[in-house]
Amino acid sequence: MFLGLKILILGTLIRQTVGFLPSEENNNGRSEKTHSSITHDAIYRAAADVIAHVIDPAKHRLWTVDEILREYLGNGLGCLRQTVEEIKNENNVAQREYGDDASRTMLCDQIEAGHLLLHSLRDSIINQSQKANPNWDIVRDLIGQYLFTLQEFYSNTNWVEMFGSRVCQELGISGNPLPFKVPTDMQVFNLVNLSMLYSNFSSLCIRSM
């Protein structure tokens, strides 16, 4: 039961995870959403969504997240809570280790690289979960990395400005191209050069006045 639930939850997390601020350990007492709080909420909502819409829709569809999880998991709810905490910890580790990696944070127009990275992480999570004797420590580590990069997409790109609250369903899914054109390295290079040229020209004009 739990193996199938975990795999279904992974797919549902794509719809539940949205943009955010840095992780809880760095929020300096702010009350805004963080890496940690969004990961926490997304996993619980994803688990409840799978139960209510896939496993037992007739019974659970109108229940709250807490009601669904308590009734369906029973004593297993403690295991879910522990798993969520471990994934949150791995999410924080990913932020510390990969915060300067543009392909992990989608910065510097590395959206396509991040997209392909999410392909690889997602496939690794599913493959490891389906083994006869899965290493759940590895799975939790990979999910933490996956959620870090997934969340960075909404934080560091202009997706929200372009598409509002729409979820990028294609992100991280093998065989699904992104629904927008990603700038090539040469386009980015030309844009940077144009910006530098404009800046230098503006400075020259000011000095000449």
Strand and helix map with partners:
Layout: H1 2-16, H2 35-55, H3 57-60, H4 65-73, H5 77-98, H6 102-105, H7 111-129, H8 136-156, H9 159-163, H10 185-208
Helix pairs in contact: 1-2, 1-7, 2-4, 2-5, 5-8, 7-8
String of helices and strands:
HHHHHHHHHH
Number of strands: 0
How much is the radius of gyration in Å? 20 Å
User: Which structural class fits the helix and strand makeup?
Assistant: mainly alpha
Shape: globular
Low-confidence stretches: 14-27, 184-209
Count of the separate structural domains: 2
The DSSP helix count reads 10
Largest sheet: none
Helix content: 55-70%
Overall pLDDT metric:
76
Classify the beta-strand content into a percent band. Answer: under 5%
- Beginning-to-end CA distance, first to last residue: 75 Å
Q: What would you say about this model in short?
A:
With 209 residues, the protein is mainly alpha-helical. It has 10 helices and no strands.
Question: Would you give an account of this structure?
Answer:
- By secondary structure, the protein is mainly alpha-helical.
- It has ten helices and no strands.
- Helix 2 (35-55) crosses helix 4.
- The longest helix has 24 residues, at 185-208.
Characteristic key phrases:
mainly alpha; 209 residues; single chain; 69% helix; disordered C terminus
